[in-house]
Design goal:
478 residues, alpha/beta, Rossmann fold, 2 domains, six-stranded parallel β-sheet, binds adenosine-5'-diphosphate, binds alpha-D-glucopyranose
Length: 478
């Protein structure tokens, strides 16, 4: 049975986070550790990494004429061992893993992540002076895509798993970048890293990993179609026997309304009425009229096309006429930020917008809201609909990817068999979203039914209990 796993990722909560990948990289390895697996995480040592744990120097490894240090630490508050790839010339700058402080994509992303991948390969082959050889290297998204490709050229290599968290981000670079990276020329072919004449990091995972996973069953099917595949659908259907969907779990300690230190009133199913106090705190904090009868809708998201922010913007004028309040926390595309701010400044009694990234506020919004909006165009898994259900907040989602797999629409039969947990719509149009918002308002006015939706969601087990075992099963096949 495979006992040693090297988990390769570009972000991991609480060290550094821009989105759901960090949540997963911070929680899945911990769950595997609890199942008795020797997991180690490897991640770049960005300047923005936050930790209270000690950091030790382990070794220096030279690849492609660049020296990188390997530093060792633990994931804060856990026993999970973390190796930081330290190379200040690439990672020693403020900003996040993908953009600088001004929000511009790093000009040298390909160089940064190819160095990271090469070092991960040295560690995987036990050439990093760490005296440890993994049975399996588990890579995540394009930033680690070169690892399976480079390992495919090694004799006696560990097996590789590549998880697609989001196929929309592929790490595509011009041919000239390929040349400058000095990677083994055998990897350059249409069956390899080349994609329409460009270098594709993600193809390194899709073409060379022994197994591919993605983060929901529905997304595993969707990415084999032209509508979701970005031209990679052919390769993905060719590899369909090696491709599985495993739904993400949540960190049930971090996202627990009974113990959450970020919220003002803790609660569970039995003390659900206390959720109101969190709602009132939210209304006060956002200078909205404090009124428990008016439902609070929230949205927490990267403000990008994927998340259906345009649909929300189209709905806002009509939402303003309805008995509801809307609070949004997000950061992303400037045009979305501007349009949202304009609405908020015109209608401060109905809408509050926080532009930025705020982990505590995200918890407070989940705790205090009545409804969570997630009208995504596509959503490989999505985590906030899961957090919402745990916090008695009813999600409105579009039927796609992991949203389709984790939210049960409110219908007579799903109310009858107590499976309804939210509201689901099909068409990615503002009309369908608006109709669903109105449907939610009608149900909100029937407190007994609303309470049933809340408790149905709160009773679900979205922890890693099941999914971590599915990964174990997959590792065992290898
Ligand atoms: P994605 O990874 O596509 O962004 P997910 O739903 O998987 O979407 O995960 C998003 C994660 O990032 C959640 O934990 C969510 O709470 C968090 N998040 C997104 N935007 C913000 C923000 N502006 N402030 C705080 N947390 C945020
Ligand atoms: C991606 C996806 C999101 C998923 C997350 C973690 O960022 O957009 O749907 O939940 O990865 O797997």
């Amino acid at each position: 049975m495979p006992r040693k796993i090297l988990f390769v990722t570009s972000e991991a909560y609480p060290l550094i986070k821009t989105g759901g990948l960090a949540d997963i990289s911070g929680s899945l390895p911990k769950a595997l550790l609890d199942l008795g697996v020797d997991v180690r995480l490897i991640i770049p040592n960005y300047q923005a990494i936050k930790t209270t744990e000690e950091i030790y120097y382990k070794s220096t490894v030279r690849v492609n004429n660049i020296d990188a240090n390997i530093l060792e630490t633990r994931l804060p508050g856990t026993q999970l061992l973390v190796w930081l790839v330290d190379c200040p010339e690439f990672f020693g700058f403020p900003g996040n893993p993908y953009v600088d402080e001004q929000g511009n994509a790093w000009g040298n992303s390909a160089e940064r992540f190819s160095l990271f991948c090469r070092i991960a390969v040295e560690v995987a082959m036990n050439r990093g002076y760490l005296d440890w050889t993994p049975d399996i290297v588990h890579c995540n998204d394009w930033q680690s895509g070169l690892v399976p490709a480079l390992l495919s050229l090694e004799a006696n290599r560990p097996a590789t798993v590549f998880t697609i968290h989001n196929l929309a981000y592929q790490g595509l670079f011009p041919k000239a970048t390929w040349t400058s990276l000095n990677l083994p020329s055998r990897l350059w072919s249409s069956e390899g890293l080349e994609f329409n004449g460009m270098l594709s990091f993600i193809k390194g995972g899709l073409a060379y990993a022994d197994r591919i996973t993605t983060v929901s069953q529905t997304y595993a099917v969707e990415i084999q179609t032209a509508a979701f595949g970005y031209g990679l659908e052919g390769l993905l259907s060719y590899r369909k026997d090696d491709l599985t969907g495993i739904i993400n779990g949540i960190d049930a300690d971090q996202w627990n309304p009974e113990t959450d230190p970020a919220i003002s009133e803790r609660f569970d199913i039995l003390t659900l009425p206390k959720k109101q106090l969190n709602k009132m705190a939210l209304q006060k904090q956002h200078a909205l009229p404090v009124n428990n009868a008016v439902p609070v809708f929230v949205l927490i998201s990267r403000l990008v096309e994927q998340k259906g922010i345009d649909l929300v913007l189209e709905c806002l004028p009509e939402m303003l006429t309805l008995p509801l309040q809307f609070i949004l926390l997000g950061k992303g595309e400037k045009s979305f930020e501007q349009q949202l701010s304009t609405f908020a400044s015109r209608y401060p009694n109905k809408i509050a917008i926080t532009l930025g990234y705020d982990e505590d506020l995200a918890h407070q919004l989940e705790a205090g809201a009545d409804v969570f909006l997630m009208p995504s165009k596509f959503e490989p898994c999505g985590l906030n609909q899961l957090y919402s259900q745990r916090y008695g907040t009813v999600p409105i989602v579009r039927k796609t990817g992991g949203l389709a797999d984790t939210v049960v629409d409110t219908l007579p039969e799903t109310l009858g068999n107590k499976t309804a947990t939210g509201f689901v719509f099909n068409q990615a149009t503002s009309g369908s979203l608006m109709e669903t918002i109105k449907r939610a308002l009608i149900v909100y006015s029937q407190p007994e039914i609303w309470k049933q939706l809340q408790t149905n969601g709160m009773q679900k087990d979205y922890s890693w209990n099941n999914s971590a075992k599915e990964y174990m099963g997959l590792y065992e096949q290898l």
